[in-house]
Amino acid sequence: MSQNWRPGDKRPDVERMIRVDQAGEYGATRIYAGQLAVLGEDSRAAHAVAHMAAQEEVHLARFNELMAQRRVRPTILQPFWNVAGFGLGAVTALMGEKAAMACTDAVETEIDKHYEEQLAQLGDSDPELSDDIRRFQAEELEHRDTARAHGAEEAPAYPVMTAAIRAGCRLAIELSKRF
To answer: 86 Cβ partners below 8 Å, 6+ apart?
Structure first.
């Protein structure tokens, strides 16, 4: 998309972007909460998850702030993302630490792609939002790399599990944009 706007050009829907990003960060905090509930505090993976969860809380706080400043309504699906996120985190952790890390790998891979698409749509139209997205995208990639360093790719049925989780992420993104 062109960075020089002309009459008739389609502009990015910033309200939808903020709504879906807030929903995604909320979902991430719930996934990590589910994983931590199962993993406990003493495992190597739990320490990594706790660090990633703390960063997701910062992301969520920022999108909550942007929603208030710009008067963006949250998705009506937030109660569902609460349960679904926690459930996904808990189930993958019950499958083992590597499966929990495969979940993180899948989610963060999809979020990286999502943020990249948003940055392309934004161009130079909203530097504040673009800066936030770039910063959070870098941390999401760090989470993906951490998950891989903790054996994500060694999880049982890794290709199938990550493909299913990524598809779920894409669906959640589309639904949160609309509702």
So the answer is: 30, 31, 33, 34, 37
| Number of Cα atoms under 13 Å in the Cβ half of residue 138 | 5
* Nearest Cα to Cα of residue 103 among 113, 115, 91: 91
Is 96:44 a contact under the CB 8 Å cutoff? no
What is the pLDDT at residue 1?
39
What is the per-residue pLDDT for 178?
Answer: 86
| pTM of the complete model | 0.88
DSSP string, 10-77: PPP-HHHHHHHHHHHHHHHHHHHHHHHHHH-SSSHHHHHHHHHHHHHHHHHHHHHHHHHHHTPPPPTT
pLDDT digits (tens, 9 = 90+) for 108-166: 999 999 999 999 998 888 899 999 999 999 999 999 999 999 999 999 999 999 999 99
